[in-house]
Amino acid sequence: MAWPRTSPSRRRSGSACATPPRMSRRGTMFRLVYLAACLGLASLAGVLYYGHTQEAPTLVAEHDLQVGRQLIAGDLMVRRVPASSLPEGALNSPDQAIGQFVAFPLMTGQYLTPRHLSHGPAGSALTGGLPVPPGDRILSLPATPAAAVGGALAPGDLVDVIAVPDPGKGSPATGLDPAGNTVLGQRVLVIGLRTDQGTPLEADPSSPPTGTARLGSVLLAIPDSEEQRYAAAIGADTFVLTLVTG
Which residue(s) pair with 163 in the sheet? Predict the structure, then answer.
């Protein structure tokens, strides 16, 4: 039995519907590129998600901490938080902070960084290692060279502080009567000298005078119980500082 022969027109029509090999290869390459791009984006999303959810230990304040407090173990705790939320340099161990002093107020749960801490108590940068009694306050007392031993004072000196009534500040007394003068403090520790602009005054006697720096105030360490007396005197009096030599 003879099979029917396919007409030339049907053969041509069938060959036209077949996919050319070149077009098939292009489609395959496109699908591969698309798949690779999807995989790359998925990997990137995974890395970003992991980075935002990865936790790291960090040191936080157990309770509110005031400036000047020397830290102990009970002031601190370690908490695990997302690493992406940590500030630069955040501490992660109590050993990095215990024994140091709080330089800025800290709230409960706040992260600790090196800038929040200092190796000395508040004001240690001013005291320069001088033996300031615990609890003392550092006060800036207006002074002129003529009333402060000619400006020859230096950090570490001990002085007596005498308040002299100044009518120019509203004081009723004239200061001419010694009975109106008040000894505010005796053997008061000098912390430093400042110019009228508040900058440190060069206390090295070997340094040649420039003629531009002039004594404007003396930094003193006073008991906290004397703060109010000194504050009231600054508003009404001028001051004479006498150097204790023995």
Answer: 182, 239
One domain, residues 132 and 111: no
Domain total in the chain:
2
Q: What is the DSSP string of 156-224?
A: T-EEEEEEEE-GGGT-SS-S-SGGG-EEEEEEEEEEEEEETTSPBPP--TTSPP-SS--EEEEEEEE-G
Sequence-separated (6 or more) residues with CB below 8 Å from residue 141: 161, 217, 218, 219, 220, 230, 234, 239, 241
- 233 and 131 within one domain: yes
The lowest-confidence range among 101-105, 123-127, 222-226, 232-236 is 123-127
For residue 144, tell me if it sits in a domain.
Answer: yes
CA-wise closest residue to 141 among 188, 79, 75, 104: 188
* Selection from 110, 140, 124 nearest residue 215 by Cα: 140
Q: Which residues contact 225 (CB under 8 A, 6 or more apart)?
A: none
Instruction: Report the run of H or E that residue 137 belongs to, with start and end.
Output: strand 137-142
pLDDT in tens, 21-67: 555 676 777 777 777 777 777 777 666 665 556 889 999 999 999 87
Domain-terminating residue out of 103, 118, 133: 118
Question: For residue 132, what are its two tokens?
Answer: 């300031």
The dihedrals phi and psi of 25, each to the nearest 5 degrees, come to -65, -40
Asked if residue 138 and residue 90 are part of one domain, the reply reads no
Domain holding 61, by residue range, is 55-118
The C-alpha atoms of residue 174 and residue 123 are separated, in whole angstroms, by 36
Nearest CA among 107, 37, 97 for reference residue 71: 97
